[in-house]
Amino acid sequence: MQSLQGQLLIASPHLPDPNFLRTVVLMVQHDDEGALGLVLTRPTELTMAAMWQEVAEEEIEDESPVFLGGPVQGPLMALHAYKAAGEIEVLPGVYFSSDKDHLETLVRQSIEPKRLFIGYSGWGQHQLEAEMDAGGWLLLPADAELVFTTDVDRLWKDVTSKIGSDIMRSTLHLKGMPTDPNLN
To answer: Which intervals of the chain form a coiled coil (predicted)?
Structure first.
């Protein structure tokens, strides 16, 4: 089995789980034991400032949203670009952390870009592969720009457009396809 770490999972209409409707998930870890990912398209109403006040009882000035990483409860987690606080390099320039000291460094030093997550997306052994075989997920390589985009609606549109273009190109055996088919 090839690891899907660093790939984006895009929920297809065939995925029956409503927790993942219109989601883009970054795969943080994937091996024979299972998989862990974080939903990039679910900002919450909770701000970083409010969350940090609750967690560390400290005031910070960061009104960016905390994201809901998935339906599984877990520790506070972060995706960021600060190698020194990285526990896993998910893809070049994108690191994952859940260690309290690393999270404190990211927040207290106002390191950007970063995203904090409550909850995560988790799959047991072979569960994700079964969902993919059933057509529930589509794959796309991730990059730091997509991971850290601040416009989550645009992220959804960009990845679904890219997948649609890739499917059309491979189905029609086209070498090139204009971004706007009306230009044809």
So the answer is: none
Q: How far apart are CA 167 and CA 155, in angstroms?
A: 18
- Counting the structural domains of the chain, the total is 1
Asked whether residue 156 is domain-assigned, the answer is no
Task: Please give the residue range of the domain that contains residue 58.
Answer: 7-151
Helix (H, G, I), strand (E, B) or coil at 39: strand
Rg, C-alpha atoms of the chain = 17
133 three-state secondary structure: helix
In terms of DSSP bridges, do strands 65-68 and 114-118 run parallel, antiparallel, or are they unpaired?
parallel
pTM: 0.87
The model's pLDDT over 129-148, given as tens digits with 9 standing for 90+, comes to 999 999 999 999 999 999 99
Residue-level length of the chain: 184
**Does residue 65 form part of some domain?**
yes
